[in-house]
Amino acid sequence: MPRTKERLALDSARRMLHHGAYSRVVNLLGPLHDAEVANFLAHVPLDDRRRVVRALQPAKLQRVLAVMPSDALAETLADLDDKTLTRLLSGMPRAQAAGVLRSFPDSTRETVLQAMDEASSGAFGELLAYRQGLVGAIMRPDPFALDEELKVSEATDTLRRIQGEVPLYAYVVDERRHLVGVLSFRQLLIASPERRLREIMTPDPISIRPEEPQEEAAALISRYDFVALPVVDEEHRLLGVVAVDDIVDMLQERATDELYKLAGLGTGDRVFAPVLRSVRMRFPWLAVNLATAFLAAAVVALFRTTIEKAAILAAFMTIVAGQGGNAATQTLTVVIRSLAVGELTLSEGLRAVAKESVTNLLLGLGIGVLTGMMAIPYHPSVVFCLVLMTAMIVNMLVAGLSGAAIPLLLRALRIDPALASGVIVTTFTDCCGFGTFLGLATMLLRYLG
């Protein structure tokens, strides 16, 4: 279906949702691509989403759920009875279904696993044994593998008999299922039919352990331009495979998660989330920010007498604190991103702190001089401009120091840097900005004119 028609159908479906015409919504969504339907449902109110899901044809529903974002999928299925939930999860890719099961209470997980056949239950149990964030949690078990002693003709015959999803690579294993090589379909097509796979395979392929973080798998896939990465155990036996689309999904979810954490939000908060849930998720972080704001206010209150004598200080102290906060946000973004993708390790922390400190010191010199010059029309005192410039330089330096050091310290304490760095660093820059500017002004008050 052309993109214009898809957009028109989705716009019509949104209008029908407002009127509660769920059967008409289902008719409009029926011809659309499964991924379009999944994305549409993920961004409508939860109650509407659940009603549409119940009305979709089973085959269509199964395909849509298989490509729906995991957080939206979990809350969509949360109110289903155990029998329906078991049926739907059994038809989904195992790694995705295991991710959904993780979000449910232990009692629900046990009920669903007991209702499955022994093989499926065992496979799900193995995936659930890996905690969220590890490679094992997103790997696809039972990857396509061929014995190294097979002839090319036998391997191609095996490939022709595959039903369902075509494998990305053909992994080559020995008799004990140790991973010994990998084959592309091109290698199979151009090789002589009588040759053995061990003769044409690429030996010792790069692999990863299931206990490794998912970011490591993403780094390897990006570095070597893979479309899939084999997962092996400690004895190098082939356990599963991580595909590039699994990594893309993980990175998208991780990016959303990091963005929400920086704003002090939970990932369950959406534009159409219930009002009380949004309030519950946002209030604690706002309360923490309120407490830190009072710390900054307490610093300002120490210089109340100075402000009464030179009211112009009240106008400019926010500039010093604000620029420090902006510089700290830039540093935080660079450092947290570098930690997330593995560019920065704790052992390199001092070097990173030094680099960001020097960077912000130079920025402070430039911004400080510019600020002093721009302040002349408001207060032509040279001393005032020097106080403003000095305070700006000091606060920008503090922004670089704290913006680099605090995420590293939190990571060393096993606390997510994205969750707490922002509010801590902002408190540093606010208190330091106000304290430095007003402190210098107090010392030189008689020269301010």
Secondary-structure blueprint:
Layout: H1 3-18, H2 22-29, H3 34-42, H4 46-55, H5 58-66, H6 70-77, H7 82-90, H8 94-102, H9 106-115, H10 118-128, E1 140-141, E2 145-147, H11 152-160, E3 170-173, E4 179-183, H12 185-190, H13 197-200, E5 202-203, H14 214-224, E6 228-232, E7 238-243, H15 244-262, H16 275-301, H17 304-309, H18 312-341, H19 349-375, H20 382-412, H21 417-443
Parallel strand pairs: 2-3
Antiparallel strand pairs: 1-7, 3-4, 4-5, 6-7
How many separate domains make up the residues?
Answer: 3
Number of strand segments: 7
Number of helices: 21
CATH topology of the largest domain: Tetracycline Repressor, domain 2
What's the SSE pattern?
Answer: HHHHHHHHHHEEHEEHHEHEEHHHHHHH
Q: Which assembly state applies to the chains in this document?
A: single chain
Strand arrangement across the biggest beta sheet: 2-3-4-5
> Can you tell me the CATH class of the largest domain?
Mainly Alpha
What is the rounded distance between the termini? 73 Å
- Largest sheet features: 4 strands, mixed
